[in-house]
Each structure stands twice: as structure tokens, then as C-alpha cells.
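G., the chain you wanted modeled:
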Amino acid sequence: MNFKKYAIAFSVFIAVLVLASVVNAFHSWNGYHWARTSNPFTLKLGDNVSSVWDSHLGTTANDWSVSEVLDTVVVSGNTKPRTCKSTTGRVEVCSGRYGFNGWLGVAQVWVSGGVHITKGTVKVNDSYFNTAAYNNPAWRNLVMCQEVGHTLGLDHQDEVFDNANLGTCMDYTNDPSTNQHPNQHDYDELSAIYAHLTDVVSTVFSSVNGNGNRLEVVGQDIDLDNPSAWGKAVKKDSRGNNSLYELNLGNGEKLFTFVIWAR
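Predicted structure as C-alpha cells:
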């Protein structure tokens, strides 16, 4: 028996398995992405957060700008923190006391034309972040980084809270200490998502009108602060909580809501 031959074959087999596991670690969110004409492109993050959050928003913007395909830059906000009204072509980031409603952070993303993100909002809930359990840089960085990551087109790398940390903010965890920033796989995933260029910059549908934190959709008034108005739940976290909602706005436009729930 040629043991050397079998040893080499076994090593190749293991290498193929490892490669397959890396390839399968795919966390694009259905391929949704911002339309743009070149890479890298710049995405504005509107600053509607309190001074306590400014450094964490800056950290998140710097972290995601490490990507080769995009830069996130902090600019003056266009809305009031309480309403967090969306702005086409950018992401409005807001902080406020949204109440003890169960969630730490929410990312809401508008998608049109099947795959194109047209605008987004991020809310971080000071009702919880002002408590001892969450009032620390690790939790603030993780939630801010993850919610902005969703507005770029990323899903989670892992959704089981008790698993070992992956060293990325796109990982559910009970301990945010080593999950405060993106990792290389996040940047690689962004490069894959944004490999294809498009000449359509944005699409706006006249049937959907923003009014503060409410939407008027085909005559219906929708309160974006109310989970019951977020549409159907399409994903749950490992604790059984709804973590992603989808709302059909009509005319080819959808609103997706990502939620991080408090423990």
C-alpha cells in the first residue's frame, strides 16, 4: 500500500472541505446592493445621533471604509432623531429613547427594482443603552456597526448567540468584546456583492411618501416605529425572536427591517 499517496490524497480532501466551508460562509443579503457607476463609491451616513454616539458612528464609518469597493462618510443629518425620516441615496443614523420595546437597534432598508437599495435608516435605542447592561463601548460599537452593515447589503455571518465569536460585528453574540468591527470576510463579501457595476443610480416611486417616521403607501398610514407594521417576519434568531421583516410597498419596492433584540 502506498501510504504516501493516500496521505497526499487525504490532505487534498481536507483542503477541499476547508475551501467549501469558506465558500459556503456566504452572508450577502439576497444580493441587495446600492446602484453606482464605479468602485469605490461613497455612501453618506447622516449624523442624527447624540454626542455619546458620535465616536461610535465615526468608528463604524472608518471601519466599513476599509472595504475596497465603498467608503462610508459621516455627514450632517437630514432628520430628527425621534422620527428618523429616510433620505433617498443615503443612510440616516439616529439615536433616541425609543422606549423599552425590546430592541437595541433597528436597520430599515428600502429596495427597489428587485436588487437595488435606494435608502436606509439606522436607529439605536437609548432606553436600553442608558442602562448598565449596555452602556459601554463594546455594545455600542457592535450594534452600530452591524446595523450599518445591513444597509450595505450584508446579512449575519453567524446567528447563534452561544457560538464562539467570529471577530465581526456581523455575528450574533452574548459577549460583544471581540465582535465590535468588521472582519476580512465582511470585506471580501462586499467585494463580491459590488463586483457588478450598474448605471442606474437610484429609483424613487411616487406612490411611497415619507412623513416623519410614517409612510403613506397606497392610502395606508404605516408607523415605522411599530413592529406590527413592519410586515411579515421572514427570519428568526436562535432565541426564536423575529429578526427580519419584509413589507411590500407596491410598485416593485420593499422595506426590510433588521432587529437586534435586547437580552
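The chain has five helices and twelve strands.

Shout if anything looks off.
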